[in-house]
Design goal:
heterodimer; A: alpha/beta; Rossmann fold; Helix Hairpins; B: alpha+beta; five-stranded antiparallel β-sheet; about 15% helix
């Protein structure tokens, strides 16, 4: 049996999902659903899986998340719906419940955070609420793992016996009631034929949802009759159709709550949140605090914890490589195979794996920011700035992470609820110069601009940001025109994050990254190794200038001539930069046949200062490393789009460096 | 008066939810419907958006969108 887990955002849905499934989670692909959903087998059962659907407030076809949920329920026909509610905010949470009940699918309503309600002296009459809603109601506390087994028993019971919600009518007698019943009656046969609940379809038709008019194959006459009764209702009710329906639902909810909910004193969690907010979103303190928090996370991730672990991991990998090296030598294996294993596979994958601790550490902090509710405040504080480039406040954090490493930045766009914002953010992240490019800037600025090193560094970062803003503005008025999703966002109470959720998220991100390291990145590493190792007649090269890679570098070099660096070695270094940005410097030192200490001298023979800066501009903007590209591919879920992104990035990099060099040449 | 003009902390009742399309529906879904009590809790540090208190929870919306919501102050 398959159950759908549905609920508002911030109601503890993911916590419940983790409670239900433990680590038995996988990413499932469902036909007709564009975004991957997490599926897991419920602990203690054999054949019951639960699907974690996006957090939504209503079933309307206006946001991607709502469409995913609707399509999943209507097309996949789950055996049951687990509807989770935040009991501390029950009125608004019940709004979605009423819409779900109209679907006439076996449902269990789950009141989460009951411990908080009780802690504040409130009570909810579960039996009475269950009667009024016509479905089982189960009180739980997902964070404390209470009430879960009863919930599992109930959902299996209703699903097995196909017990549909008993109450079908949420409308008090009046114009809305008459209208809904007239339309329901009119379309009942069509709805039955399609296997959709007639009341649900009727309400969708009253709302003016064209999808259902088509799906039910209504004729012109029927549509006119529906329109007629809706207009009559609007006139009598004095509200338009959407407001009238929302009003009908909230009136029912208010009546149910009046009978079943005894509100306690003002919730202490809420009072605490207000106090915290007085500081964290304070007019003067909000920005400094936010920047300090991000600085602290960066510092801890890249310098202290993540950096330390990364270094240890690299050392460990190096020792492993050393051991493998010796073992293969002793065995007397063919030198080409030896090089493939040591220089290609182990070194390449090892390089990428050393990112892992940074990713895990960064996600540790990010999931804490997200789960505590601070991320919503960041969006609240930063929204005004980001709106100017067509995004909302939520995109700020991924872009900031981009300065550290693009890979986790792309991965963190998952928290954005709008697909449009997510894609635009993914396109913008590479403009935030990642930390792996620092060695390139350092070597070049030391060689060419020793007096102005800091200036060059800061300048490059600023150029990246400015171009990013320009790029976003162009995108906003072209490809990403459409209306952004309205920024109407709940600010949830601050809560302690659950260690289980934090750990599971870290595990999930780590697994995701390792999977990629051993598939696409593994392949790319071998290809680059091959190109470096052999000449075009497939003989092993002794001088790296004869390799296939060097040939490709020579072929591509003319493209870079108008940018001021037509030297094949520069082109080759840029190609190697695709495997990891650090490789640009190491490749140049190999090809110039000098050690890193004397880079300056060698480089000044290859580049003029103007060309050097042009080269830096190109490095800043061209496609990020393959780990990043593989992540873009994963997040956009399209090879073609990813390829287009890479081409576009290279083209923009070329154009900017070209314009800079050509204009610069006029003055120098 | 529209919601964006409501002074911080002052209680009011929603009289009309204007606007159109997805935004208006989202507002209705979140429980901003006529006759509901509402108050403004704070304004973001940069002057926009605002945070409101409705049906016992906090919601943030942009000033531009708050202009579509008409409210009437209530005296206590």
């Amino acid at each position: 049996m398959i159950f759908a887990l549905v609920g508002n955002q911030n109601c503890g849905k993911t916590t419940l999902f983790n409670c239900l499934t433990g680590a038995n989670q996988r990413v499932g692909n469902f036909p007709g659903v564009t975004v991957e959903q997490k599926v897991g087998v419920i602990k203690g059962t054999k054949d019951c899986s639960v699907v974690d659907l996006p957090g939504i407030y209503s079933i309307r076809p206006y946001s991607n998340e709502e469409i995913i949920t609707r399509d999943f329920i209507l097309n996949e026909k789950p055996d049951g719906i687990i509807n989770i509610l935040d009991a501390t905010n029950i009125e608004r949470n019940l709004y979605l419940t009423l819409q779900l009940l109209e679907l006439r699918i076996p449902t269990v309503v789950v009141l989460n955070m009951m411990d908080e309600v009780r802690g504040n002296g409130g009570t909810i009459n579960i039996k009475k609420m269950s009667e009024r809603l016509g479905v089982p109601v189960v009180p739980i506390s997902a964070a404390k793992n209470e009430g879960i087994s009863e919930l599992v028993d109930q959902i299996i019971h209703v699903a097995k016996n196909k017990i549909k919600p008993k109450v079908t009518d949420f409308c008090a007698y009046g114009p809305v009631h008459r209208c809904i019943h007239a339309v329901t009656h009119l379309i009942a046969d069509h709805a039955d034929a399609c296997g959709i609940s007639a009341r649900f379809a009727a309400i969708k038709l009253i709302e003016g949802d064209a999808y259902y008019a088509e799906k039910l194959r209504l004729n012109k006459n029927e549509l006119e009759m529906i329109e007629h009764s809706v207009i009559e209702m609007e006139n009598e009710e004095g509200l338009d159709r959407n407001a009238a329906l929302a009003n009908m639902r909230y009136s029912f909810i208010e009546a149910v709550c009046a009978e079943t909910v005894v509100k306690g004193r003002e919730s202490k969690e809420r009072l605490r949140s207000i106090k915290i907010d007085n500081v964290l979103t304070n007019k003067y303190l909000a920005l400094p605090i936010f920047l300090s928090v991000m600085f602290l996370i960066f510092w801890l991730t890249f310098n202290v914890i993540g950096g330390f672990l990364s270094d240890r991991l690299s050392e460990g990998i190096e020792i492993m490589i050393g051991l493998a090296d010796k073992a293969l030598d002793n065995y007397g294996i063919n030198p080409v195979v030896h090089s493939l294993v040591i220089d290609g596979v182990l070194t390449g994958v090892g390089n990428v794996l050393s990112f892992l601790p940074i990713i895990v550490t960064l996600f540790f902090f990010l999931s804490i920011l997200e789960d505590t509710g601070y991320m919503a405040r960041v969006a609240f504080v930063m929204d005004k700035l980001l709106r100017k480039i067509g995004l909302s406040g939520k995109s700020f954090v991924p872009m900031l992470i981009g300065f550290g490493c693009s890979v986790p930045a792309f991965m963190s766009t998952r928290t954005l609820t709008s697909e449009r914002d997510r894609k635009l953010t993914i396109l913008l992240v590479p403009y935030m110069s990642c930390s792996a490019k620092i060695p390139i800037y350092a070597v070049f600025s030391a060689a060419f601009f020793p007096e102005h090193r800091a200036m060059v560094m800061i300048g490059l970062y600023l150029i990246g940001i400015v171009l990013g803003i320009g790029f976003a503005l162009v995108m906003k008025h072209t490809i990403f025109q459409g209306k952004p999703i309205p920024f109407v966002m709940e600010l949830p109470n601050y809560r302690m994050p659950s260690p289980r959720s934090v750990l599971l998220l870290m595990w999930e991100k780590a697994k995701d990254f390792i999977e990629r390291a051993f598939t696409i990145i593994f392949l790319a590493t071998i290809v680059i190794w091959f190109l470096q190792k052999f000449d075009i007649r497939l003989n092993e090269v002794s001088d790296s200038a004869d390799s296939i890679l060097a040939h490709i570098g020579r072929l591509l070099a003319p493209i870079f001539t108008p940018l001021g660096f037509g030297d094949w070695r520069a082109a080759t270094a840029l190609i190697c930069g695709f495997s990891a940005k650090e490789a640009v410097v190491s490749t140049l030192s190999v090809l110039l046949d000098i050690n890193a200490g004397q880079m300056g001298e060698g480089l000044s023979q290859m580049f003029t200062p103007l060309a050097a800066f042009s080269f830096l501009l190109f490095t800043l903007l061209y496609t990020p490393c393959m780990a990043a590209v593989a992540t873009i591919r994963r997040e956009l879920n399209s090879g073609v789009k990813t390829f287009a992104v890479v081409i576009m990035q290279c083209f923009i990099a070329w154009l900017v460096a070209f314009v800079f060099y050509q204009i610069g040449s006029l003055f120098v | 008066m529209t919601l964006n003009k409501l002074p911080i902390g002052k209680k009011a009742i929603i009289t009309k939810v204007g606007g159109e399309g997805a935004l208006r529906l989202r507002l209705l879904d979140m429980g901003l419907i006529p006759k509901t009590r509402v108050s403004v809790r704070k304004i973001a540090p940069l002057g926009d958006p605002i945070e409101i208190d409705i049906r016992g929870y906090e919601l943030t919306l942009r000033i531009e969108d708050a202009k579509n919501i008409e409210v009437k102050c209530i005296d206590e």
